[in-house]
Amino acid sequence: MCGRFTLAATPEEVAAFLATLELEAFPPRYNIAPTQPILLAMAGPPREPGSNLPDRVALLVRWGLIPGWCKDPKALPLLINARSETAAEKNAFRAAMRHRRALIPATGFYEWKREGKAKQAYLIRPKGGGLMAFGALMETYAEPGGGEIDTGAILTTAANDQIAEIHDRMPVVIRPADFARWLDCRGREPRDVADLLAPVEPGFFEAIAISDKVNKVANTGPDIQEPIASAKPAAVLVPKAARNPAPPADQLKLF
User: Fold this and answer.
1) What Rg, from alpha-carbon coordinates, does the chain have?
2) Is there a catalytic annotation at residue 185?
3) Contact 174, 103 (CB under 8 A)
4) What is the pLDDT of residue 233?
5) Cα–Cα distance between 29 and 80 in angstroms, integer?
6) Burial 203-232 (b: 16+ CB within 10 A, else e)
7) Which residues pair with 82 in a beta bridge?
8) E strands along the chain, which residues?
9) Is 12 a catalytic site residue?
10) Which one, out of 4, 85, 229, 248, has a CA that is 20 to 30 A from the CA of 91?
11) pTM over 0.85
C-alpha cells in the first residue's frame, strides 16, 4: 500500500510536469498523510478550437476516496488506496475508474519493512530524485447537508523485485508520455489503459533508510528524510536477479 508520501517540488515545477495552469503557491510537504488535502490533476473540459489552455486541471482533494453512493462516510473504511487489478470491478472504485482517472504528483513515498520485532522506515523515490505521478482516482461526494467534497485514492500494484524487498505493494507510476492516454476518460475505457497499471521497472526507484521520525504525522520537516547509518544499506535497490547468488560472508544483504 501507500500510506504516506512527499511532494517536495516547487509549484512551477509541478505545473510544468503536469502541464496544468499555474498553481497557487504551496510549501514543500514531507509527510503527507491520509485525510489531508493532496494535489491531483485531471483532464480538463473540452477546449475550443484555437484555445491555448492546458489540457489538464489541478485541484485539492481529500486523501481518502468516498464513493458517491456512500450514505455514512464514518461507517466506510478509509479508502486511501485502490488495487489496480480490481478497481474497474469494485463498487467503490468502478465509476471513478471509468470516468475520473487522475494523477497525483509526488517526489517519493514511504514504506516500512519489518525487521524482527521492529519496522525500518524507507524513503522510496525516483533514482536521482525528481517528480513522478501516481495513477489515481477522484470522486466528488455530495454531503447530506448539501455540500460537496472532492476525494481521491492512489492506485497500487504488485511490487517489482526491488520494492518487494520492503513491501509487496507499490503505487502505480504513470509516465509523462502516457499522461494523456491515462487521463482520457472520454475516449478510453479502463481496459484501454490496463497496460499502464503494471509495476514500474526495477531500477526506477532508490530506497533510503530513514529514522522513525516519519512515523508521527506531526513531524513534517525535511529532517525526516535524512538517511540513517544502517548495517543494511538501501541507497540503491538491486533486483534479485542481478545479485551475486553467493556473496562473500563479509557482505551484508541489502535489507
Assistant:
1) 19
2) no
3) yes
4) 45
5) 18
6) ebbbbbbbeebbeeeeebeeebbeeeeeee
7) 155
8) 5-7, 29-32, 37-43, 56-63, 81-83, 101-106, 108-115, 118-126, 132-142, 148-158, 169-171, 205-210
9) no
10) 4
11) yes
- Of 48, 111, 189, 226, catalytic: 111
CA distance 22 to 57: 10
Q: What is the per-residue DSSP string for 23-75?
A: PPP---EEEE-TTSEEEEEEE-PPPPTT----SEEEEEEEESB--TT-S-GGG
Report the 10 Å Cβ neighbour count for 52. Answer: 5
| 15-68 pLDDT tens trace | 999 999 889 999 999 999 999 999 999 998 776 666 666 679 999 999 999 999
Place of cell 514543500: 28
Instruction: Give the pairing of strands 132-142 and 81-83.
Output: unpaired
- Contacts of 52-57 with C-beta under 8 Å, sequence gap 24+, read 53/21, 54/19, 54/20, 54/21, 55/19, 55/180, 55/183, 56/18, 56/19, 56/20, 56/103, 56/179, 56/183, 57/20, 57/21
Residue 131 grid coordinates: 517528480
Among candidates 200, 180, 172, 215, which has minimal Cα distance to 83? 172
Residue type for 20, please? T
